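Example 3.2
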Amino acid sequence: MRQKFDVTGMTCSACSAHVEKSVRKLDGVQDVAVSLLQNSMTVTYDETIVTPQQIIQSVIDAGYGASLPATKAETPKQESASALAAAEQKAMRKRLWVSIAFWIPLMYLAMFHMFKEWFGLPIPAFMHNAFHGPENGVVYAFTQFLLLLPIVYVNRKYYQAGFKALRRRSPNMDSLIAIGSSAAVVYGIYAIFRIGYALGHGDMDTASHYTMDIYFESAGTILTLITLGKYLEARSKGRTSEAIEKLMDLAPKTATVLRDGKEVGVPVEEVRVGDIVVIRPGQSIPVDGVVIEGSSAVDQSMLTGESIPVEKKVGDKVVAATINKSGYLKFRAEKVGKDTTLSQIIELVEEAAASKAPISKLADKISGVFVPIVIGIAAVSAAIWLIAGRDASFALSIAIAVLVISCPCALGLATPVAIMVGTGKGAQHGILIKSAEALETVHAVTAVVLDKTGTVTEGKPAVTDVLPADGIDADRLLLVAASLEGPSEHPLAEAVLAKAAERNLTPLPVSSFAAVSGRGITALIDGKPCYAGNLAFMRENGIALGGWADKAETLAAEGKTPLFFAAKGQLLGVIAVADVVKPTSKDAVAELKAMGLSVTMLTGDNKTTAEAIRKQTGIDHVIAEVLPQDKEREVRRLQEEGHKVVMVGDGINDAPALARADVGLAIGAGTDIAIESADIVLMKSDLADVVTAIQLGKATIRNIKQNLFWAFFYNTLGIPLAAGALIPVLGIKLDPMFAAAAMSLSSVFVVTNALRLKFFQPKFRKERTQ
């Protein structure tokens, strides 16, 4: 069973790693994915061995909170994720302003003599009299302590969470902040006592030494800058889920349904399967259903990206969150609540955002042991400097700098923020990415395998050529053809009828209709015998063909099916029907080849038709007359040759190949997104979206690598610098205040870099054909 849980109390990747480790220890748990960004956890487990309550308890035992997600029915006033994020930002902003309000006077008091020396700022007389010189050391130090207390109080969460995690032997980022700032505070209090003792014994040198060595300003700066970084990080992280929030906002909050023959407005949660829903022009469709009355054009761009509204009539499906543009519609609700297409899309995007890419596993492993190692490095660094002959103040400063500069956040945020933004951006382009692993794999593909029908081509026959015989009008040919094909059940008949309707031709009544299997049709129109069928059928009925037999061969070589029509023993002409190539397919194939990918098309069609499609689109290789299992075998063959293969199909007869491929893309599945065999679902039937998906994968993985490089580089450089590695060589020592600033900026940098993905746009060498 797969179950999602809400998790509270996590502040950094060390927390999420500890939660994951605790749950994995349970018997029956098969997989765990913890999302620090969403404060959630998805667990796959055997419900006969372990229960949700046991999973929740294991999280609680680890020092965090957990619960099953509440449904709307249980919590009708439940706040949205954006509202909760806004509340968190508001609380963080309050903490920040209080911290800054007391930090500024604390810094001025601690360093007023430097401000005068550096900036020429005047020192108020009362400050000079009250705080200048060692004789005022106790007042000077105690005033700093009083200014520090409000900063410590508003940021007490660091101490509560940090020491709690430390007690449970699972230290996190809060533990580093708590230990570092506490050490500074404790040393400052110790300094006050030493100043007082020295003054009482007339030891002005000792009093002067400790007056200049208090560290209250370091503790205040650490807390204030870390809070500033957390606030900026919270603001940035809030923007990562904008795509999901936008999807959620698409759904209307109310619906108009027929109850006892009257139109009644109800909350969308109260719409039930089978309800008749009324939609007027301009209104959003609240749930999925089937039209039972009326016709209209429906704007589906917010879900599929289609720029042109789609015509809907009786029997057509409509989808929640799309907009009725023109007509009046009544439809029967078929999917409501979590079953609607929109809800499934949101669920897919959330699951993908919460999943982990293989590239993040190294960062996760490091995050799990990072904090204890840093605490050890801080202790060893302090001990080394003490052994080297430096005083306790110097050694303490080194230890605090090491603790504060170390940033597990940058490591922990490097992957999930980019994944969340990347999957959200995919959803905006009509590309639903089911997992982070798919996003990572698709960037490395070297071969693309395409199904023909419905992927490269439209998937339904259409008239491509109307070729009337000499002396015959094209409309006359189409009229007779439509009249003969009207009663027919032949698959190509619909294409002929559609072409006639396009030209506003109304089929004539026919009599004595007879279908000859595999050959054609005979019927009477106005009492005159008429024929429709293939070349052999025409010859059997004595129709003179002249040069039309050669023309038919030319059409067949182009992948088209020639249909002959005759009346009163005379050939009226030929209408060619084919499954036409989609307008964007040729350009999409060219883009894939320009990216260095090998493109292969698999089809069950004959070789002639397949070769014709290959020539039209520029596809590298074509394999015709294949069965579904043959498609899977071809994908496997490419993999054995060393290729990373992406298979693109309609997700039905291509399921074996989609499952076998390194990445399976189901195309044109906008109203059936729950295709288990595909890793990525393309909402539109547009091959160009395959290009977009691959480019998005490359952009996301490139962003993750940048983030991971920065996180590793920052910590690799920062920790030795804080430990004093450059002091013997260059005499450079990192102050704890600068360490705190660097730590905050590292997290903000990683999140901000990931947010650049929001500006992703697919790049095509030439403008796409619409």
